[in-house]
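Researcher: I'm preparing a figure for a lab meeting and need a structural model of a single chain. I don't have an experimental structure, so a prediction will have to do for now. The sequence is pasted below. Please return the structure as C-alpha cells so I can convert it later.
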Amino acid sequence: MVWLYFLLMIGTIAVPVALVAIQEQRWFKKILFYYFPKVLRPISYQLKPINVYYNKLTPEERKRFEWRAYYFLNTTNIEFRNFDGTRFVNFNAIRYLIASVATQMSLFLTEDCFDAFHRIIIYPDDYVSRVTNRVHKGETNPLAGYIVLSLKSLKQGFVTREDGINLLMHELAHALWLENQLLDYDIFEPEALKQYQEIAQLELHKLSEEGEHFLRKYARTNREEFFAVSVENFFERPGVFSAELPQLYTALTQLLKQDPLQLADTK
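Model: Understood. Here is the structure written out cell by cell.
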C-alpha cells in the first residue's frame, strides 16, 4: 500500500513535468501549428508585406515560411534595451521582420538553423560591446547564444535594397556559419560547403589584391566576414551578383538551396 501511494506521488509530479517538456518540443509545436492553429498565438497577416520574399513563394512554401517564422518567434527572446518613451517603435513589426528574414535565409535548410541563438538584443543605435568594449552596429556571440543589433543600422539595411549592405542579414549569416563551423550543427551539405569554400578562397585572394571588387572591402577581413557580405549581396542584389561573380553566386545557390533569381522569375 505504501509503495502504491509512493508511485502515485511520483506520477503526479512526473506527468506534469513530462507534459511541459513535450510542449516545448519542435515536433509538438509543429503538430499544433499545422493541425490546431487556433491554440497558438498567430502572426499578424498585416505584417507580411514587410517581407516581399514571402509573396513570391508557392502556397506550400508560404505555409512552411509561416511555420518557421512562428517557431523562430516562439523560441527566440527578442529584447529591446535602452529604449525610452520619447519615440514610437513598433516592436512587434521589428520582431516579425527579424523572424521573416531569418526564415528567408534558411527556408530550404534544416529546421535546426538558429537553434543555438536563443536571444537577440536590440539597442536604439550603435552601442558599446561588452565583449570588445568597442562601438558596434551588431555582433554575433555563438558561445553565449545571442545576437546584438543596432535598430538604426538594422532599419537602414532596408532603405536601400540594392547596395548589398544589410546588417540583419549579415549577422544572421554569421549565425548560420558559426553553427555549422563552430557548434557542429549540420546546416550546410558537406559537398556544397566544400565547393563554396574553394571558390570563396579564390575570390578572397582577388579581393585582397584588386583595387575594385563587387564585394565591399570589409569582406576581405576573413572567411567569416566574406561569407556574411556575400550572403547580403546574394539576397539584396542577386542579378548583379550573378553577372559579376557567377561561380560564387552558383555556389551560394547550392549552399543555401535556393536561387533568388529563379524565385523572382516564377512570379
